[in-house]
User: Fold these one by one.
Assistant:
Number 1:
Amino acid sequence: MCASLTRLLGATSLLAAILTGLADAEPIHVRFAQGSSHGFLAIRTLDGKLIATGESTQIVHGDRVTSRLIFRFRDGSIDDDTTIFTQREVFRLVSDHHIQHGPSFPKPIDFIIEATTGNLTTRVEDGTLTKEHMDLPPDVSNGLPPNLLLNIPPSTAETKISYVVPGKKPRLILVSIKPTGSLAFTVGGLRRQATDFTLHIELGGASGMVAPMIGKQPADYHIWLQSGAPPAFVREEGPLYEGGPIWRIEEISPTFGR
């Protein structure tokens, strides 16, 4: 399981600076509490080339969950995201620490959100730390999808969540989540269907019309889940940084022998 929307938003501070009029959003209610887990993932290009492998871990202590997703790229790049959240009736972010560096990422990221205090810390390439405070809404969700999506009924027309975009001047933006279709897939020869959840960064006012015209509208992100109790993660697709290529994230299984 992974939380790659943080990567999609990782370098969109230019767009965040022109966002206006954030609509109301609310924390996602817990339908399926998250448990301890350990899984393996891969990032591939859309033509199937393997470019990174990763591990996803979750450790539960009471109602607090520590989730970590780390990808190691073949070119030496690292994408490492550690998220702590609680799940008392609703999901609430405690903290998120996201690091991206290496040849695959034109703009390195080392960004910490402390949601309970509103403190934001950014480490730039020379090691300098910059800190500032932001009044964060209770639904701020850095590092949480698709954990949140597992708890959104596919019949829900639209859900909105808040995100903090890292940068020299961190910004608060809104993401719209909608079920927009389905994807057929097979497991062990059995045909199944997954719901396509589209995650769209909303640009308000005139900037929402101008951004697509000048090529600055961030690409949508897609997460496919098979419905059930609980739902099952199937696939993710989207850029991991602003203007980056569309990459695909899927679970992988170990292989044995030489």
Number 2:
Amino acid sequence: MKVAALILALSLPALADWKDDVTPATLGPQPKLVPQEFEYRLSWNGMVDAGKLTFTFGKPDPKFPTDYVTRVTGGSTGVASKLYKSDIALISRLDPATLRPRASVGVQNEGDEIVTTRSTWAGTQVTSEHVTKVVKTGVEAKLDSTFVFTPVHDIVSAMLHVRSQKLDNGDTLTMPLMPFNKPYLMRVEVLGREKFANRDTIKLSVSLQKIEPKTKTLLPYKKMKSTTMWLSDDANRIPVELRSEVFIGDVRMTLAGAKKL
């Protein structure tokens, strides 16, 4: 028993180390992204079309005049939609000065179920309402959750904060996320610069682990094995391509178009 207690005592500090490594939620020197819209093609192994996503950054919204508003829409198409239907719509409202999240609403339509997640950030707390509706019966199941920590990003604020940093070769970023109703820890490492898709790019590796909300211990995230991202090495610094080894295989998100708003 004494040996077991000693091993446990030695392991506990290591489990908490990630909190000391968290990157401050301070924007880096890269200029902010001007209002733009980007379209992405989703594919399996870069060959089979699986869907599309549209990201809209900073378009003024009369409903939220004091927020920096971003939207993500799209989902699976073609054969992929028959195998795995998934249409998403996400609106994220950020503080325009800091680009830290204030509130987000995400809706995912999976055909037989529609999942809606509403999250709000206040002080050191993120509160989420997660509602799953069975389409056939109309029955809803609601799950409320809270994660107490700061800083915590949503998906979009994390993207904008990563692109804002210097991103020197070898740099690492550690960022807690609340993409929907559960917290994760994202680690980003700058692997270097290279030509990719006829562009100057910054190559990044991205990893995710689950965070147990109460104990703050880290747990493996088995659905994503590895992810590599190439950011354009220019004023925009937006993803040119993302490749992720996940539970359904090699999924890719490739830039297909861009326009200023």
Number 3:
Amino acid sequence: MKKVFLIIALGLGMVQLSQAQSSEKPGGFGVRGGANLFNFGGDDVSENSYTNRVGFHVGGYTMLFMTDRLALEPGVYYSVKGTQNDDFVDSRAILGYVDIPVLFRLYPSDGFNVFAGPQISFLASSKFEGDFFGNTVSYDSEAIKETDIGLVLGLGYNLPKGFNVQASYDYGFTPIFKDSDADVYNRGFKLSAGYTF
């Protein structure tokens, strides 16, 4: 857990540093959160094996405008991912990560924007659960890799008074299981609402 707090502190430090170095146009610090809809993806995942699992994400970001239409947005979020299996015990994987995306936002208009960028994620917790005879049985797992590399793509819109909404897709590149050649990745959608101070 200490490592997770250190990662968050370093990420927030990078956010503040990038904000302080903005010279063309002042950026803004913001908070954002919302719902996750994640699943396992990859060649070794059967289409009928897993279904999307609902989670959440919450964190902060800063905007560093490089031009009037292009901004760099580093952020730090806690995000719950995983998957659901429609088997007889309703088994599920619940994976908590600290996500650190570095997004490039392009503003074709004042409100609408498109964004993309790399993301590194650090595993904070990994748990597998199942329901047996009305009782939930869970155990912590060490089978999940500690880091995950991916790409974030999305669309956003800035509302009045600092509010914003967006939809994005996380495309994981790193197989998530340790000591395995299985092509299984974190993949999923995020729906978010935010506020820039």
